[in-house]
Amino acid sequence: MKRLLVMGLLLTACVAVQPVRIAIPATAVAVEGANPRVWNQPISFGDWRTASVNEGTTRSFLFDLGILDVGKTDQAYRMVLQGPGQQTDVECHMREVIVGSAGVFVQASLGKEPILVCGLSRKGYRTVLALTRTGRPEPSLVGELRQVGGATYDVRSIHRAATGGIPSGEPFGYEIVRDERALAVVETVNRGRVWIDPDAPNRDDLAAAAAALLLWTPSEVEGPS
Questions:
Q1: Which residues pair with 98 in a beta bridge?
Q2: For 36-58, what is the HEC assignment?
Q3: What is the pLDDT of residues 169-184, one digit of tens each?
Q4: How far apart are CA 197 and CA 194, in angstroms?
Q5: From CA 202, how far away is CA 24, in angstroms rounded?
Q6: Quick check: bond before 224 cis, omega within 30?
Q7: Of 71, 76, 73, which Cα lies nearest the Cα of 57?
Q8: Are the beta carbons of 211 and 129 closer than 8 angstroms?
Q9: How far is 27 from 49, CA to CA, in rounded Å?
């Protein structure tokens, strides 16, 4: 009986530490270098790898205005992503102003201004990735991947594990879709995984967007302790 009890506790412990997985095709490839993250070090997945990475410092501050607190976060980062085609230059800027009181904050321009904007460029192509907060539990972040003069894709955060359950407050990953068809899925938890539809057009853009999302952590302005 004692042995059975010990085995039961061990099984419970094993289940408790199982990593979260999102619904992603079995052909997804693992990410190298994203988690655990080392500052300014390369990342790679499948046919794509960074030739250079320059992560800017995140600046965050909070002002107490008496009735309201106002906070701001600011970060910029850039990379060069090399794939089977041409290399893609990626430059991202995250800026968010929030207001609140008693430790509860909302984005000052909720849904009207993006908190993350990335420019993706390579010879003959320019693409913009932009995300903003929705104010909803899921998806908490939505936006688009728009090729200048070309296709536009919807981007949205994923908050549920593949097994279902209660949605997480923070994203487990992102999906890039067009006409409700997923063309790319990015898992940002654990080591990270990326799946890109082998038949999708503009696969280098999808890969560059995936790399940008892997290196970005939606920041929170913290109040005084």
A1: 71, 107
A2: CCCCCCCCEECCEEEEEEEECCC
A3: 899 999 999 999 999 9
A4: 10
A5: 20
A6: no
A7: 76
A8: no
A9: 18
DSSP letter string over 86-136? S-EEEEEEEEEEEEEETTEEEETTTTTS-SEEEEEEETTEEEEEEEEE-SS
Closest to 29 measured CA to CA, from 208, 194, 212: 194
User: Is the backbone of residue 115 left (phi > 0), alpha (psi -120 to 50) or beta?
Assistant: alpha
Angle of CA points 222, 219, 35, to nearest 5°: 125
CA distance readout (Å), 113 to 25, 70, 72, 133: 32, 17, 14, 9
Rounded to the nearest 10 degrees, how much is the dihedral formed by the CA atoms of 42, 45, 48, 49? Answer: 10
Show Cβ contacts of residue 130 under 8 Å, excluding neighbours closer than 6 positions: 114, 116, 117, 118, 143, 144, 146
Measured CA to CA, the distance from residue 93 to residue 128 in angstroms comes to 11
Length of the chain: 225
The tens digit of pLDDT for each residue in 25-62 reads 999 999 999 999 998 999 999 999 999 999 976 555 44
Q: What is the bridge-based pairing of β-strands 69-82 and 104-107?
A: unpaired
- Say which residue the tokens 């230059």 belong to: 89
**117 Ramachandran zone, left/alpha/beta (phi>0; psi -120 to 50):** beta
